[in-house]
Write a structure and sequence with these properties.
This protein has 12 helices and 13 strands. The chain has 357 residues and is α/β, with parallel strands linked by helices. It starts with a strand and ends in a 5-residue tail after the last helix. Bound molecules: FE(8)-S(7) cluster and iron/sulfur cluster.
Length: 357
Amino acid sequence: MELKILGQGAPAVSTGRIGCAASGHGGGDPLSRLPAEVRAQIRDHPCYSEAAHHHYARMHVAVAPACNIQCHYCNRKYDCANESRPGVVSELLSPDQAVKKVLAVAAAIPQLAVVGIAGPGDPLANPERTFATFRKLSEQAPDLKLCLSTNGLALPELVDVLCAHRVSHVTITINCIDPAVGVKIYPWIFWNQHRIEGAEAAAILIEQQRKGLKMLVERGVLVKINSVVIPGVNDVHLRAVAQYVKAKGAFLHNLMPLIADAKHGTFFGVTGQRGPTREELRVLRDACAGDMNIMRHCRQCRADAVGLLGEDRCREFTLDKIEHREVDYDQAMAVRRRVHATIEADRAACQQSPEPG
Ligand code: CLF
Ligand code: SF4
């Protein structure tokens, strides 16, 4: 069912698909085995908790155009394949525009819980724009969780800056832990003012990802690993990646199918590299599941996605539509708190209900 809540002087808002069946609970909480502080971190994050994605929304702000590496599955004219389908970011935003958009979305979608920066390039290859956005959001939208997705090359030097900006969830795309596999995925990286190619480039990237993951885990940041599944290139190797990232303290592993199409202009697209079949993906996820928490509800979002996963509302919030919108953020935050409290009450009731059937 859909539950409607009326905020004081606010329009009717929907809490989303409320109900035990839709919530993924039928009695019993699949997260109950986790420590309380981790449950609190993922309770309303739609990517880190499968149950949460039925109730809570996320949005991305596309403030990061540049990248410091090249992946064979990406053409940056289009988008970052780390976190989105290619070719779908419609507007690049300045930090001020991004904040304006967040405030507008937060007022219109009270299920919003998380703001992420995921492209269209790499957020940490654009540190000024990324951190200016996070800083302003911390000041103006202090109740929203901050999330980031990166290839990891610049991560070690920026981990403490991320923590200082209260970024609580970080995704690192790790496609391999062996440079011999990496050379088939990354033609070059830009490192210390130089372009580096071949196995040396892959080895540097892998080492930076290793360091960044370790530093984040030491600081209590929840880390999700994204891996792009590329049949014949890294699919067999990803089992070793799953074991490795679990041993290093990652929380969740998201095995994403390669999206390759010649019209995207990517290397893998034009060379005819195929993605995995649904069955191949299922078998790999099941094989890795013994080693790691596996994410199975990823929607490979756009870098400017808005709304519940799979229900993208980004076209409602283009700059021309929000430019002159005045937002009373305190009132919006109060409405959001009531909506989130209702969602949690409903989830608690579901956990106490008996198993169906
Ligand atoms: Fe965005 Fe990524 Fe944060 Fe989620 S997406 S930066 S962790 S708020 Fe989520 Fe989208 Fe999959 Fe990413 S469904 S592509 S995993
Ligand atoms: Fe593209 Fe992201 Fe790879 Fe950079 S890290 S090349 S933006 S997919």
